[in-house]
Amino acid sequence: MKQLLLRRPLLLTALYIPVYLLWFSWLQQRRVSHFWVSARLDDYIPFCSVFVIPYLLWFLFVAGTVLYLRRWPGECLRLCVYLCVGMTICLTIYTLFPNGQLLRPAVMPDDSLCTRLVFLVYELDPAVNSCPSIHVYNTLGVWNAIARAPTLRGRPPVQGCAGRCRWQLSSPPCF
Fold first, then answer.
1. Is residue 63 in a domain?
2. How confident is the model over 74-92, as pLDDT tens digits?
3. Which residues contact 163 (CB under 8 A, 6 or more apart)?
4. How far is 134 from 63, CA to CA, in rounded Å?
5. In the prediction, which pLDDT does 134 show?
6. How far apart are CA 13 and CA 175, in angstroms?
7. Burial (CB count within 10 angstroms: exposed 0-12, middle 13-18, buried 19+), residue 93
């Protein structure tokens, strides 16, 4: 099985996506009383509709990294396993301990394109099942995978700052 996955590292993800989407959709639609997660700091963060753009680009960031890593099947498979296992753990926690966040504004400040995109996101993704954050988990996994990629290993994090940066990836972190 491992040899098959190394030859076709995206096979695992292709098999997992329908399971994830069905499970996640069911969790988003089920009616249960939720434990609302919040912190006082949340009250000081202003709503800014333009942040929907990086939120939507995040999906391309994850998918793009997985596709980029196809050049190195071992690294691609490692990332796919990391993502699938982590998302399964998150979905299991959401199933056992439904939770959410009440951070969405009651009134939108304007009627811009970004605000319309925010409404679309709100419609597709209710404010439930947010802790632990799949976005944060996947971002950490993707960042580690990028740091391990053979073409990026040992390079400075920002192109052109070699010798001027105080921090560099000396060795890739492992997960």
1. yes
2. 899 999 999 999 999 999 9
3. none
4. 14
5. 95
6. 18
7. middle
- Please count the structural domains in the chain: 1
Query: Domain range spanning residue 135?
Result: 2-32+48-148
Cα 41 to Cα 37, 44, 51, 103, 145, distances in angstroms: 12, 6, 18, 11, 31
27's enclosing H/E stretch is: helix 10-29
Q: What is the pLDDT of residues 90-137, one digit of tens each?
A: 999 999 999 988 888 888 878 899 999 999 999 888 888 889 999 999
Angle at 60 between CA 77 and CA 68, to 5 degrees: 40
pTM above 0.85, yes or no: no
